[in-house]
Amino acid sequence: MKNFRKRHARAGARAHDWAPFRAAERLICPSVRQAPFRLALAYANTYEVGMSSLGFQRVYELVGETPMWTCERFFTDGRGIPRSVESDTPLNQFGCVAFSVSFEEDYLHLLQMLDRAGIPLRRKDRGPWDPLIVMGGSCASINPLPMSEFIDVFALGAAENVLPTLLPTLAEEDDRNAVLDRLAGERGFYLPSHHWPEEEERLPKLRKMELTAEQMRSPGNLPTSSIVTPKTEFANKFLIEMSRGCPEKCRYCWATFGMGKFRWHPADFILESLDRARAVTNQVGFVATAVGDHPEIERILQQALESGFRSSVSSIRIPAVKEGVLEPLHASGSRSITLAPETGSDRLRQLMNKPITNATLLEKVKLIFRHGFTQLKLYFIIGLPQETMEDVHAILELGAACRGLMLEEASKTGVVGNIHLGCNILIPKPYTPWQREPMDDKRNLEHKISVLRQGVAKLPNISLSMMSPRQAIWQTYISRAGSDAADAIERAARGQSLASLLREFPERIHPEVFQTFPRQLRWQFMSVG
Question: Which helix (H) or strand (E) holds 257?
Fold first, then answer.
């Protein structure tokens, strides 16, 4: 895009001081600072959140490894024009800004970053000298339509598959229209300007280019941290992806249906990657939707321990909690385990297609505390189809039973730990069996939340975090909306409250509107492939 690569920065307040952040970073791979082509890689949230994303770091590494290209990072921190971490260059001086978006709530942050940079929010308002706006990440693959009035190009699928097309196109074409025309004919991209967003039922069938099991047998396709820093949620940890997809088929979960069949990276590649981490850290984090289901998880954890690394895992499916997993984790210094029972009753868990009983869960919890772990996080969902108040009380009963097991073990060691219950509200996601389900009634949810809070208050050593019904209403709307969501999203980005938006767009956002969907769902123009 030779003739709109440069532009002058708009005058305004200076943004965040990135010097302390750069000083704290330890680079795994050398970073190229000078190259003919530059990509602005933006995460629509803070540095701490963005640098905790292995997917974001993976794109940064892949672009940096591409000849003739360099990559500069942007986050929401600070005020004024967003400037890059690497060179303090304003966002609006780049020819292309690629956003990585994993959470729908970050749509507002994305628009706010564009507004701060003086870049028109709507793609129809951008001129030849404005940057091309690209969006990737899981939100692009779940349902890009709500952001289709703002985004020029959606990258559908794994960065390893879309960057080899995107980067040469940006380098070889003379202007933004030529880039759009060329990408419109390529696999793995959705272009609203070329794919008729105003007639969503006519959208062509587009394929998401996920990383295949065959590709994952190549060592070059193993995502690991490219930068280690203390200023993230995973402070000083070298992150390694274990697998993609999930062997479970829970009815609420997009990952198991939208990411393809469960597949994993070879254990030898994972263990070899530890050599890259050794020079900068002795902490490693194994991340995936189903970390414990890697067929060689026990070998990986044991060898990481023997190599002197302190290991942690993002979460473990309940059936994967075994002595061969817990022992090396605890021996390496880990004291926290995260499980996802999702509900407190066997009946409701069966209905969500997660056939694990409370008896099995409690056996695993007992094993966890017996091995010396002191922090247990349990994730639950309320507002599920066919949920009753007995199911809600069952969450408290299950939490109390886990507490009893913790105290039983504490009587032997003298160390009392903590159990945290993280409760979300069901957001019926596209591509899941529950994609047509209505969101639970707001009053019902408020009553359930009140019951949980009052119950947890009576249980020492148990804490609770809750998603708000208002937040769930908004997320449900923007998860399943079409291109007609643009007005509401833009107004929310400019500071209009959800209460005000509900009054202004009751026919779109109010939960009662989510009760029915047409037989042909608007987002079904994409398939995994």
Answer: helix 254-258
